[in-house]
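Q: what sequence does this backbone want?
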């Protein structure tokens, strides 16, 4: 690797799931020479990945401001500053619009709007020499997907906050951008993607002919955090051209799955 992030203190929140997007980014950043602090709610997993990378970890529930502040304090105690802050938590909440409950709406707003907002509030003062902030967003903050309104709305809202951060803190050398994957092969999506025909329903909408990977996102994040980056306030659509087209509708997914299941049954007979 080229060492594009040599010596940069990097905090990745949302890296507590084994081999999830946060952990894939942490591994790539470590390969690029960054000093790694991973964070999330599961200590065993965080301890494992931080030990693998020779880094550190912090326990943090993004919905609790005291956890966020304690996490940033730990980074400062360890390294004296923060160069890179990445927010990669989320909840793939699916619900028909009229059936979304108040309890679920509060939960997703805390996870995907209030929590990230307060994370960025804590990161900025720690970026004493400037830095890079990244929000992991979603193509669905731009294009439609059925039964996903609360998820999409909160992602779109925090994307706009990213633009305000870029506008206000650019004079301090801080860049702020978001990355929008489409459907991505991760541990979080593995159960859903195991359904025969589901991936096929999505894949035909990708001009580059495949769905995304966490490695695709990590590569984009490396660029955004490198010294050669001159982007700020932008939303990178790292999804193989998906936003040139659309996500499939629910009934189209159902038809694709049913056809794949029927084909499997025919092959058995």
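A:
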């Amino acid at each position: 690797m080229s060492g594009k992030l040599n010596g940069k203190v990097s905090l990745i929140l949302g890296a507590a799931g084994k081999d999830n997007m946060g952990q894939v980014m942490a591994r790539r950043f470590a390969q690029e020479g960054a000093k790694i602090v991973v964070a999330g709610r599961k200590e065993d997993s965080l301890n494992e990945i931080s030990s693998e990378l020779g880094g550190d970890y912090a326990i943090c529930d993004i919905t609790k401001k005291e956890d966020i502040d304690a996490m940033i304090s730990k980074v400062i105690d360890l390294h004296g500053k923060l160069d890179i802050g990445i927010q990669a938590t989320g909840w793939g909440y699916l619900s028909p619009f009229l059936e979304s409950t108040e309890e679920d709406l509060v939960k997703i707003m805390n996870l995907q709007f209030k929590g990230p907002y307060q994370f960025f509030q804590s990161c900025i003062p720690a970026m004493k020499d400037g830095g890079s902030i990244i929000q992991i967003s979603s193509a669905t903050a731009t294009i439609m997907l059925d039964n996903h309104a609360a998820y999409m709305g909160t992602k779109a809202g925090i994307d706009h906050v990213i633009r305000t951060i870029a506008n206000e803190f650019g004079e301090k050398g801080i860049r702020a951008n978001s990355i929008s994957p489409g459907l991505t092969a991760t541990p979080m999506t593995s159960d859903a993607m195991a359904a025969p025909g589901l991936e096929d329903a999505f894949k035909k909408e990708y001009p580059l002919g495949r769905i995304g990977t966490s490695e695709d996102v990590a590569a984009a994040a490396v660029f955004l955090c490198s010294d050669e980056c001159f982007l700020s306030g932008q939303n990178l659509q790292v999804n193989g051209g998906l936003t040139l087209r659309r996500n499939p509708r629910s009934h189209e997914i159902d038809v694709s799955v049913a056809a794949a299941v029927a084909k499997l049954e025919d092959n058995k007979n």
